[in-house]
Amino acid sequence: MKKRVLALVMSTAMIASVLTACGGNGDSPAQDTNNAAADSNASADNNATADSSASADNSGAGEQTMDFGSGEIKIWVPDAVTGVTETLCNSFFEEHPEMNGYTVSIEPMGEGDAAGNVITDVEAAPDLYAFAQDQMARLVTAGALTTINGDYATFVQESNDAGAAAAAKVGSEVYAFPLTSDNGYFMYYDKSVITDPTSLEQIIADCEAAGKNFYFDTGSWYQTAFFFATGCELSFETDEKGNFTSIKNTYASENGLKAIKAIRTMSESKCYMDGSSVGDAVNWAAIVDGTWDSSAAKDVLGDNYACAPLPKFTVDGETFQLGGFGGFKLLGVKPQAEAGKLVVCLELAKYLSDTDAQLTRFNEVGWGPSNLTAQQDPAVQADEALSALGEQLQYTIPQGQYPNDYWSEADALGETICGGNFKGYTDEQLMAELEAFASKMDALVQ
What we know:
Blueprint: H1 7-20, H2 31-43, H3 50-55, E1 71-77, H4 82-95, E2 102-108, H5 114-120, E3 128-132, H6 136-141, H7 150-159, H8 162-167, E4 169-170, E5 173-174, E6 177-178, E7 186-190, H9 200-210, E8 213-215, H10 220-229, E9 234-238, E10 244-249, H11 254-267, E11 272-273, E12 284-289, H12 294-301, E13 305-308, E14 312-315, E15 318-321, E16 325-326, E17 329-333, H13 339-353, H14 355-365, H15 372-375, H16 378-382, H17 384-393, E18 397-398, H18 404-418, H19 427-442
Parallel strand pairs: 1-2, 1-3, 8-11, 8-12, 16-18
Antiparallel strand pairs: 3-17, 4-5, 6-17, 7-12, 7-13, 9-10, 14-15
Helix pairs in contact: 1-2, 1-13, 10-11, 11-19
């Protein structure tokens, strides 16, 4: 049986408990717990790795033990993976009997809704929760995330692809464990209709000729595909606490003008539909969507199912490759007052985000791994949707932190374009609209 003191776990717990205890219920960790951690760390092999901290027998710890405590660990994950998560948690405690004083309660919560619910009452929030990386700033500001230190931070940064590793950080600090590198968009299409999936103009022509629809959501998240393609930038900087401090904003420019004209041209086609969900789409031959709808797309298209990165488009004689955002699902750990429980939560979060767990979720529900080893699995490599997304991600920008009002303002801009409000507008009039939008963005950090 594994001994109850694990050298690097205790080292990390000692540091993390000092940093995060104030974020829990206000009680300080017991003094003898910290001393035990310090003593065991002093006697441990300093060259131990993050992996060995979770599994190796700590012969240097002598007879010292740590009480990991007991109680309940509450977890929020999207509904699609509640069953998988329960299975993985059971496996974790089978492998770590020294920590099995805890029971796990798993509840469904969409990663897009997690932050809003967590920050409403951080004390009542779950101990571990999955969230989309664009919610990071709000969660850090609310004190709802434990800072990931030491070998756990090394594990996060070295085990995952660059985009996911960056998404787990605010400033120089790591705050979460990546779960996926699949929160982006590409194109599903009917290969019996679409003759050239690399050209937006040809896709539209093929759909018009076949009497089929082409779906492309011009809301906030998808809209960036055009603006980033032409060279525009819209990004926000945050301080270490997640507060927005500055903005880089070049939408009101010649590049922005090209993007808005391209969106307008696309939306004026009789085949164009504003949307991004296979489940809501009708009579379609091409749709810009994500990996989460791969099964639905296969059901609709059957033998004509095909995937591709986003196409290129031409405006004013110039051709551009559609880009956009790349996104990630992350697993956060709420600050804990008790050092023992903090260790268990960190170890469990690491386990749920490691290679085997990510492959299990891929096999069960199709989530695309962020873990570098899992990404090389033959089944992952053979997945058409993930392959298309992988190609598309080379043209995308890892999604950083954005204020809430960015999303609503960008959605409104897309609705205005696709609603035909800018039909017949001159370049000067379109530039005035871009300047008005840019002013609203600048105001978000003032």
